[in-house]
Amino acid sequence: MAKKALGKGLSALISQKAQQKPASQVPPNSDRVIQTNPEEILPSPFQPRRRFDEQQISELADSIRESGLIQPLVVRIVDGRYELIAGERRLRAVKSLGHTTVSVVVREATDQEVAELTLIENLQREDLTPLEEAEQYQVLQQRFNMKQETIAQHVGKSRAAVANMIRLLELEQGVKDMLEASAITIGHAKVLLQLKNPEQQVNAARKVVRNTLTVRQTEQLVRELLNPEPKPEPKPSTLPEAYQSICNDLSREFGTRVNITLKGKSNGVIEIPYTGREDLERILQLCGISSRF
To answer: Are β-strands 102-106 and 73-78 bridged in parallel, bridged antiparallel, or unpaired?
Structure first.
């Protein structure tokens, strides 16, 4: 199924004027394909992707080796050097093949246009992680003073979607790591953002992963953490003072809380709780009973 066009395309974002540079560097017609050394092309400072799939790069290199580079790279001139606008994976693939020349189209573009274009190009290919996408939205918002509504129009999304993605950057680092590793989804992350306590947020995310909670179950977990049920007040002791004194003496003797429950006027039950076999053996020894375990 063909992908739906997303936001503005290259021609809409980048002007078609040729650079006023010597003919040896830039052709009169900016749409004309020229050749340059791939090692001389600078990476884009606005590339949002931090990770590249080496297997995909290798497969692309095999395709270029067999059929050549069908789509040229798009570059601009910055301080007399070529800087990549579009085609990061193609450039990496060409370099891996050891090619000394590569086809490029030189365009004129501002920093803002390049930032928008690299984001749109990656979104169309669905290559960005949620945090990479969020970081690029933040770059457009903070560095270029773009409003969220404007960003949304350019990338073909709603303003709310852009705002929610940017909010992911507020997550604690431990939760970000889980999101980057796809251990939790964007839906889980949005719910966890309600937890403002850093330790509580990370612990809740770990519980989501450990118990493979759904988003709905995560919502319930967060509600319980934000609105914990009040602990029931301990019931005041109804034991007569003499019996309570006996409980206290036995508790000190056995090193554990001893309870006496009265059953009528003269009957009752003495409870001596223990934790684990070793604790039980200790209590039995205090009672003069040999362990049978």
So the answer is: parallel
- The rounded distance, in Å, linking the Cα atoms of 130 and 48 is 11
Quick check: 148 and 159 in contact, CB under 8 A? yes
- For 97, other C-beta atoms within 10 Å of its C-beta total 14
For residues 166 and 160, what is the distance between their CA atoms, to the nearest angstrom? 10
Task: Point out the residues that are catalytic.
Answer: 88
Nearest to 37 by CA among 89, 79, 73, 86: 73
Edge-first strand listing for the sheet containing 81-86: 33-36, 102-106, 73-78, 81-86
Residue with tokens 């949005």: 190
Of 145, 144, 147, 72, the residue nearest 114 (C-alpha): 144
Condensed to tens digits (0 to 9), the pLDDT of residues 264-291 reads 777 888 888 888 777 888 888 888 787 6
User: Distance between CA atoms of 189 and 179, rounded to whole angstroms?
Assistant: 7
Residues 6+ apart with CB under 8 A from 251: 257, 258
Q: CB 257: neighbour CB atoms within 10 A?
A: 12
Q: How far is the C-alpha of 124 from the C-alpha of 32, rounded, in Å?
A: 25
Burial category of 118 from C-beta neighbours within 10 Å (exposed 0-12, middle 13-18, buried 19 and up): buried
Show the tokens assigned to 148: 């969220």
The angle at the Cα of 266, spanning 261 to 272, to the nearest 5 degrees, equals 30
pTM above 0.85, yes or no: no
Question: Hey, what domains does the chain have and what are their CATH numbers?
Answer: 11-18+26-125 (3.90.1530.10), 171-225 (no CATH), 241-286 (no CATH)
pLDDT digits (tens, 9 = 90+) for 44-57: 888 777 677 788 78
